[in-house]
Structures are given as C-alpha cells and as structure tokens.
Amino acid sequence: MPESNLQNSIAKLEKRSASFRNKILKNSAAKKFFAKSTLLAYDLRQKSSRILAGAGLVGSLLAMPMPQTPSFPTEISEPIKSVLSNQQKVLGNLQEIIPHQPAKITGEQALKVEKLISENTSIPVKVELEGQSLNHTIGYTGFEQHLKRYPGDTLAEHDEIQEAGMAPGLGAFGYFAKDSRDFSTKTYLQEKYYCVVQTLYLENWNTDYRQLKDWYAFRKMLVVNPVNGNAVVCVIGDAGPAEWTGKQFGASPETMQYLDLNKGPRKGLILMLFVDDPENKIPLGPVNY
C-alpha cells in the first residue's frame, strides 16, 4: 500500500476512535472507569505507525462495524427526577403569580400561592393565620448575624459561618434557651434557621404589644426564594429591619446560604408565609421537595 494511502487510513481510524471515545465519556460511570486505566489510547497516532505495519491489518480494522456504546448504570434515579419536577413546577407557577417587588398578596392570588406551596411541599402555609398577617408577603431579605442563644453564648460555640459575627444585643424575643443546660437541639435549630419580620410596623403593634409579641415569638415560617425555588422552614427570632434599609425581612446566615442569597450584596427578594403547624410536626431547615 502506498504511504499516502496508509496515512489516510490511519487518519480515518483515529477519527473513528475519537468519536467512539467521546460517546463513551458522555457516561459519567464510564468516564470514571477509564480515568483509572490506560485503555484510552490518546497516543493512537504514534502507536499506530508501529502497530499497523501491514495494509491488511488496516483494512480489517476499517471494515469492522462500529461497536455499540456500552451500557453503564445511570447516576440519576427516579426519586431525584421527581424532586426536580416538583421544584420546577413550583417555580414555573410561582413566578407567574407573584410580583417581583415588595408587596402584600391577598385574595385569589394568596389562595393560589398557598395551594401551590402546600401541595408540592406537604407544608401547610398561610398568608394570613389566626387573623394575623404581615405588611409584606414578598419583600427583600438581608443577611443577619448570629444571635445569642443563651446567657454566656459566644461566637465560637456556633459551628457554621462564624465570619457572620454575633449580634451585640439579643433578638426581640430574648434568648432561645434560658441557660446552657436548657440548650437543646430544638433551640439550636431555632437560632440556626431564624428569620426577621417587621412586627414593629404592624398597625396594632403598639396597642396590642403584649399579645402580639407572644404570638409572633419564634413563630414558624416558610421562606421561599422565587428565583431558584429553594425554601427553608424557620422561626421568627427578631423584629426588623428598619424601613430606611429598604428591606422588609432578614434571615440567619445559614438560611441565607441555603436560599443562595449569601453572596454579593447578600440581599434578595423572598416569599414569607406562615406555617400552619399547631402540633409542631414540621421540622425546621431546608425544604425537601
């Protein structure tokens, strides 16, 4: 075989090898397998000049049919597909319903949001609960500091995101536990996943302060990022922020991190709903769709 024909044959063989290799490497399991072996002949061009000495061998190889891509176990299971489907369903519908600016939703709009969230998270939520409603259902939330959980609590005792620092004073509703001996997993999670709402701007806050403070203290809420669908069940741990900040809510470092609002300006628009959980069955923390 003339030298030019041999080179053309080698080039065609190399092209076919590369195509086959790319198909295999689209499967993550195969990619991991071949990464640990030397079976992928990246130096095919150099080796072929020594191995393919005879034109008959080249012809035989070119005549062989393309092997079928091997089947490897998939890494995406049906439960994961279902989770993504539910979250996308919430996102798609929620983004059609709510405005992308601070607002209080009422009436039919509120009913649609409650139904959508409750059906897809199994968490019963309300825009208005027991006659109480916030001035904003949708608003901007800010990144807050850690709060003191009991007398003598220090920043070093907080196991995550210590760079957020510790608030100099107590939250509006005091300590989460009366002392270190009373500090439990429950109170640990309450501080870890706390949120801040503007109770001080409620119309009847000054006249019904005692009653409202007890009702709102550590009240369970659902916070949803309407941009990505991430949601967290938290408790009201403080009152604020001030109106001049341009924010209507606040959230703990861990809550903001899960909502993916802990970077850049550390601020973002969120949906804030009451969790209707009189028997305290809904756990605090990130929501699993």
Largest sheet: 6 strands, mixed, barrel
Instruction: Classify the helix fraction into a percent range.
Output: 25-40%
Order of neighbouring strands in the sheet with most strands:
2-6-3-5-4-7
**CATH superfamily membership of the largest domain:** RlpA-like domain
CATH architecture of the largest domain: Beta Barrel
Rg result? 29 Å
Structural category: alpha+beta
The CATH topology of the largest domain turns out to be: Barwin-like endoglucanases
> What is the β-strand count?
8
So what's the overall shape?
Answer: elongated
Strand content: 5-15%
What's the number of domains? 2
Low-pLDDT regions: 37-49, 51-55
How many helices? The count is 9
Q: How much is the average pLDDT?
A: 84
CATH class of the largest domain: Mainly Beta
User: What is the string of SSEs from the N terminus onward?
Assistant: HHHHHHEEHEHEEEHEE
N/C terminus separation: 65 Å
